[in-house]
Amino acid sequence: MFTILTGAQFGDEGKGKIVDLMSERFDVVVRFQGGDNAGHTVKVGEDVYKLHLIPSGFLFNSRVLIGPGTVLNPEVLLDEISMLKKSGIEITPDKLGIDAKTSVIMPYHIELDGLQESRRTEKIGTTRRGIGFAYIDKIARDEIQISDIVDADRFMSRINELATQKEDAISGYGGDPSIVTDEAVIHRYLEAGKKLESYITDVSFEVNNAIDEGKNVLAEGAQGTHLDVIHGTQKFVTSSSTIAGSACSNIGVGPSKVDEVIGIVKAYITRVGEGPLPTELKDDIGTQIQTVGGEFGTTTGRSRRCGWFDLPLVKKAIHLNGYTSMALTKLDVLSDIDPIRICTGYEYNDSVFDYPPELTSQLLECTPLYEDLPGWNGDLTNVRNYEDLPEAARKYVNRLEQMMGVPIEYISVGPGRDQTFRK
């Protein structure tokens, strides 16, 4: 069975927690896009693991893979491997595989990212980790791949070929171009290559063989649907395609092999950085949701903007991904709020829409229209069964399911494994 899992909002929906919960029944978990601009948190008992690159299935017997559609900072990956080793978790080449064609994030990508964002009059909110510039090089055929940094001669040949181009680009932004050919930086990357060489594999070959052998494979996406570089809220998006269809192209698996697509959605909505968020709450309720939900970015630590559940955006996510089921996270955060609101549509230029407008500039000007439901009181974090939720919470879940037209399979009321249960 081949399953794809993506976020249905703007990222930070709790994908890592759901993947960790599901990983026990998957033989292979593969990351198919993004870089260390994404973060996921896995909590087991009192242990909390904050990761950016290693797929969430590392705690079980799953083989975890980083596909060629990702961009990889090798030093960040090695830091994660070292961090887990200190916790008693060995990430060996038998456990983790990295596709040979995975693009490497170079220091000059990070430099260019920061310089460009600093000069923008309208900020995007980039994490300044070089993700976008690494993807630019992939598309321009100027990338350095993970297979290059394991071979000193090939690596230096690529650096020499690209040096003038990158130095000119950095100089054009007013930066210091010496980072491109800095001997200490080159040495660090070659050392990283030596450490990662044994992890290199052919991810497409592995995944297709696993599917053909009847094994269960889970493709794990990063960020969320509306940060998709094509279909998201341009220009306030990430640099890769975050929707389910890109899992096939980015891993190298035919779409006919997909069996199910799972969407992760919060019981409300959040967004990090700039861009439209029609239901954003800039009042005490927004502050309450942010505080109770711990809405601060895993990668950047930035506070997340919070708002009511936005049905039009989720409808579009359902169309873009073809979800067969949903997981609803952070239901517990909405306790002690009354009423609880669901955005059912927008008003724009004296017209009403139940689906997002195509243009980001129009979405920025939309006024949300709401349906109000009664709230509930009390702590839900000790609930372990759907039937034990307060009646008002069950009505809220059922109403969301009815409006989305896709079954909610999982409900989460906290970060722990035992705090997520089937509906």
UniProtKB/TrEMBL annotation:
User: Any idea which positions bind IMP?
Assistant: 12-15, 37-40, 127, 141, 223, 238, 302
What would be one Gene Ontology cellular-component term for the protein? cytoplasm
Required cofactor(s): Mg(2+)
Q: Does the keyword Ligase apply?
A: yes
Listed A to Z, the keywords are:
Cytoplasm, GTP-binding, Ligase, Magnesium, Metal-binding, Nucleotide-binding, Purine biosynthesis
Where along the chain is substrate bound? 298-304
Q: Which reaction does it catalyse?
A: IMP + L-aspartate + GTP = N(6)-(1,2-dicarboxyethyl)-AMP + GDP + phosphate + 2 H(+)
- Give binding positions for Mg(2+): 12, 39
* Protein name (Swiss-Prot/TrEMBL): Adenylosuccinate synthetase
- The EC number(s) given in the record are 6.3.4.4
GO BP annotations listed: 'de novo' AMP biosynthetic process; IMP metabolic process
Primary residence: cytoplasm
Alphabetized SUPFAM superfamilies for the sequence: P-loop containing nucleoside triphosphate hydrolases
Q: Which gene encodes it?
A: purA
The entry's active site is 12 (proton acceptor), 40 (proton donor)
The record describes its quaternary structure and partners as:
Homodimer.
Phylogenetic lineage: Archaea, Methanobacteriati, Methanobacteriota, Stenosarchaea group, Methanomicrobia
* Function as written in the Swiss-Prot or TrEMBL entry: Plays an important role in the de novo pathway of purine nucleotide biosynthesis. Catalyzes the first committed step in the biosynthesis of AMP from IMP.
Q: Which domain of life is it from?
A: Archaea
Q: Where in the cell is it found?
A: Cytoplasm
Concerning CDD domains, the annotation shows: AdSS (cd03108)
Q: In which pathway does it act?
A: Purine metabolism; AMP biosynthesis via de novo pathway; AMP from IMP: step 1/2
Note on cofactor = Binds 1 Mg(2+) ion per subunit.
Give the protein family. Answer: Belongs to the adenylosuccinate synthetase family.
Q: Care to name a GO molecular-function term for this sequence?
A: adenylosuccinate synthase activity
Q: Cite the binding residues for GTP.
A: 11-17, 39-41, 304, 330-332, 412-414
